[in-house]
Each structure stands twice: as structure tokens, then as C-alpha cells.
Amino acid sequence: MTTTNGWGDPSLPPMLIQCPRCDGHTLSTQQGAYTLGPQGDEDFEPLIYTLVSCDKCRTPQLLMQMAEMEAGGVWGWSEPVCEWPSSASGPLSPSIPSAIAREMREARACFSAKLYTATAVMVRRTLEGMCVDQGTSKKALFAALGELRDANKIEGRLFDWAQALRVLGNQGAHFSKEAVGREDAQDALELAEALLDYIYVFTAKYDEFQQRRAKASGG
After folding, report:
1. Residue ranges of the domains in the chain?
2. What confidence category does residue 2 fall into, taking pLDDT thresholds of 50, 70 and 90?
3. Which overall architecture, per CATH, does domain 89-219 show?
4. Which of 3, 10, 41, 200 suits 152 as a labelling partner, its CA being 20 to 30 A distant?
């Protein structure tokens, strides 16, 4: 995909989107794009944000794609995910490891496609990835989350949230006559993103603050 600063460039290929106003898949026209890449010590895969408009109703939409390695060692872009408008929160922080962010974006994509059971499963996979990244030794998610609690990486209500998401993920992963509902899937997305922000964003900022204060006081 070619990055452009033009508007409504007819030379750019149309993109297939899920239009919220048309309530279905439609083609869209690319209106402009912006590529976000790491700078300095940042470590995340480049992202491209593309503003498109529905060819039927002209409703705007912001799509996001992540750089990924394709077959043959060639870099390309992942499938586009709607970042706005969305019932989910805004763009994920670049501080979240790319592999975990990819799972979370797939969970969002499942929700946008109204695949609520699949959303719960992808949220569970996101939690599993978070536990592995945080160095837990237990394979079972219940035990791994307990390790994070014992290491004071998550506590109190955050631990309760994580366990609730694990249970919902179990419900999605195994056959049941009761499918995961929209509200449960949306809550799962929001709680999982809160956990990721706590682990990878807020905790890191607090540690930086503590280090800066220690240097300032000569400690």
C-alpha cells in the first residue's frame, strides 16, 4: 500500500470496509494516509493509518494496518482494522509489544464483525501473551495470572478482571449452547485494554517517575 498525502486520489485502490451506517461491507475511497514508525529507543512495528470514505454514504472511517513479514521475507501490511469510529477505545499504545497488540487488534476486528464468541477467544489469547511476555512459568492461564498477582504486577480488582476475562475466554473456546453476547464481548475488550495499559503504559510511566525523583533527590 502506498502512503499518500493527497485527498480522494482515484489512482489508489479501493478498500473493503464494514460501514457502520450502511451496516454491511462496502467499498471505500482512500482520502489520505499517515505512517507512524518508531523513533529513538522506541520498539514497535510501523503502523499506517488510512482515512477512507464509504462509496455508498460517504461516511468517514480511520483504518489501521501493521507492518508484518510476509512469505519470502518481504514486508507488507496486515489486514485493515477500523480504529474510528469504534465502540472500542482508541489506538493501542506503541508501548504494548507488537505480538500482543496484534492479538488485541484481532479481537477488535472480531467485535467489529459481530463475532462476539471469537472476540472472547482472542481476548483470552491476549492475556496468555501478556503472561508469557511478563515471564510467568505456569502454562495454565489461571496459574499464570496468579504469578502476576504474587509478583505485584496486577492486584485487587485488576486480578479479578483478568480472571473474569479468562472465564469468558473459556466459554468462547468450548462449545456451548449459549454464545457470548455483545455486551460481554465489549466489556472483555475494554477490560483487556485496561489491563494492557496498566502493565505496559502506567507501570512504566510510574517507574520512570520514581527513577527521575530518585536522581533529583540524589538517591
Report:
1. 1-35+46-85, 89-219
2. very low
3. Up-down Bundle (1.20)
4. 41
